[in-house]
Automatic annotation (TrEMBL):
GO cellular component, one term: CCR4-NOT complex
InterPro entries: ARM-like (IPR011989), ARM-type_fold (IPR016024), CNOT9 (IPR007216)
BP terms from Gene Ontology: mRNA catabolic process
Superkingdom classification of source: Eukaryota
Pfam family for this entry, one: Rcd1
Protein name: Uncharacterized protein
Organism of provenance: Cannabis sativa (Hemp)
Family: Belongs to the CNOT9 family.
Length: 318
């Protein structure tokens, strides 16, 4: 990585100087933001200043254009962020993570998510195998708030990677066994963590390589199917339309594989075949359409018709 000059002369966001812009107020504000970001990035390399720099950068990261390349290309910055991550490994087991420790490392993770999201740094992020540093956090079992926050923020980094449909990203994640870690969170995490983990699995399935991977062996398919089925049962008691949407999309994508579709004919939860979630999906025509298509794919010959305005649209499958 190139060294960041102490003079803070690294161009940030490609901006021109204040004088070149005629000294306009907007340009002056932009220059001040750039200088602020550059100084905070420099502060990350100073152990005495790092905690405040992490906090300020994580809070303001949306305001700083092209923060990700600045983080990646500045000397020692990524190493400092990884140092923050590995420093809490000893308190993962037995679980002794404090709220202050969790907040600090999550600020570092928020900056890594920024790097994972940026088109100029995403591939570099993957090639450096940086997501592997997060996997120990996803393998934790404590349901305390500090651990839940840690898992959720770690999932956010992975979620940022899969938001852009790139087979290279999916290939990397599959090679590093991300699926079992997501399934673990889908079983025991909070609703929000479950939602992000299910979204990651959904995005992996939507890639042909991911679908093939899951459906190559019965063991993998039924591992995913078992967790999805368990989540459906839980949602019958505590509905979440957002989580249900991702679950149904996962099932629909699985039904695109002939072998998986055959298996779903017998293992698709009955609660997706009847009107259990009619209220949950009342305001979500997209997910209702997905469910219709799923039931059609698995050969459900008849689904109860509900009164207009009470849930599913008329769903008679030929």
């Amino acid at each position: 990585m190139a060294s960041l000059p102490q003079s803070l002369t690294l161009p940030f966001g490609g901006g021109t100087s204040v004088s070149a812009a005629g000294g306009g107020g907007a340009e002056l504000s932009r220059e001040r933001k750039m200088a602020s970001a550059e100084q905070l990035v420099l502060d990350l390399s100073n152990p005495d200043l790092r905690e405040n720099a992490l906090l300020e950068l994580s809070k303001k990261r949306e305001l700083f254009q092209d923060l990700a390349p600045l983080l990646w290309n500045s000397f020692g910055t990524i190493a400092a962020l990884l140092q923050e991550i590995v420093s809490i490994y000893p308190v993962l087991s037995p679980p002794n993570l404090t709220p202050a420790q969790s907040n600090r490392v999550c600020n570092a993770l928020a900056l890594l998510q920024c790097v994972a999201s940026h088109p100029d740094t995403r591939k570099l992020f993957i090639n450096a195998h940086i997501p592997l540093y997060l996997y120990p956090f996803l393998n934790t079992a404590s349901k305390s708030r500090p651990f839940e926050y840690l898992r959720l923020t770690s999932l956010g980094v992975i979620g940022a990677l899969v938001k852009v449909d790139e087979t290279e990203v999916i290939s990397f994640l599959l090679s590093t066994e991300i699926i079992p870690l997501c399934l673990r969170t889908m079983e025991m995490g909070s609703e929000l963590s479950k939602t992000v983990a299910t979204f990651i699995v959904q995005k992996i399935l939507l890639d042909d390589m991911g679908l093939d991977y899951i459906c190559t062996t019965a063991e993998r398919f039924f591992a995913v199917g078992r967790v999805l089925g368990s989540m459906v049962a839980s949602l019958a008691e505590q509905p979440s339309s957002r989580l249900l949407k991702h679950i149904i999309r996962c099932y629909l994508r699985l039904s695109d594989n002939p072998k998986a579709c055959d298996a779903l004919r017998s293992c698709l939860p009955d609660m997706l075949r009847d009107a259990t979630f009619s209220g949950c999906l009342r305001e979500d025509p997209t997910t209702r359409r997905w469910l219709q298509q799923l039931l059609h794919n698995v050969g459900v010959s008849r689904v109860p018709t509900l009164q207009a305005g009470t849930g599913f649209e008329h769903m008679m499958v030929n």
